[in-house]
């Protein structure tokens, strides 16, 4: 929720990127709901509503089948674990994007550009 609100400070591509990152964070409660046999859409709507009301410790209660105060259930997510998970996921996404850029660039080099592989001239000038 806070990531999406933060995105409102930006416009254009940056805003879309931040919004996409915020939506990616919802994968965790969605997966928990699906794996528990709950309706993930209902759970996400309920979770968003709870968080908007300031109930930030609310999460998916799989035994209860609804959104509950998970701190009362003894569920604690250490900050260090969350920070590392977000960092690892961000690094993985960045690597995928870099690989995609390399593949796209190599396809451009083979397509319309003259010269040899990767768009390089077939004969290199001598220096």
Form type: elongated
Count of helical stretches: 5
Q: What integer value in Å does the Rg equal?
A: 22 Å
Assess the beta-strand content as a share of residues: 5-15%
Q: Report, as a whole number of angstroms, the end-to-end distance.
A: 57 Å
Reading side by side through the largest sheet, how are the strands ordered?
Answer: 1-2
Helix content: 55-70%
> What sequence of helices (H) and strands (E) makes up the elements?
HHHHEEH
Low-confidence stretches: 112-116, 118-122
CATH level 3 topology of the largest domain: GROEL, domain 1
CATH architecture of the largest domain: Orthogonal Bundle
- CATH 4th-level superfamily of the largest domain: GroEL-like equatorial domain
* Total domain modules: 2
CATH hierarchy, class of the largest domain: Mainly Alpha
Q: Provide the residue-averaged pLDDT.
A: 83
Helix-strand category: mainly alpha
Let me know the largest β-sheet.
2 strands, antiparallel
Verbal overview:
It is built from 5 helices and 2 strands, in the order ααααββα. The chain is mainly alpha-helical. A two-stranded antiparallel sheet has the order 1-2. The radius of gyration is 22 Å and the shape is elongated. Mean pLDDT is 83; it is low at 112-116 and 118-122.
Task: Sum this structure up briefly.
The protein has helices at 2-7, 12-25, 27-35, 40-52, 79-110; strands spanning 58-61, 66-69. By secondary structure, the protein is mainly α.
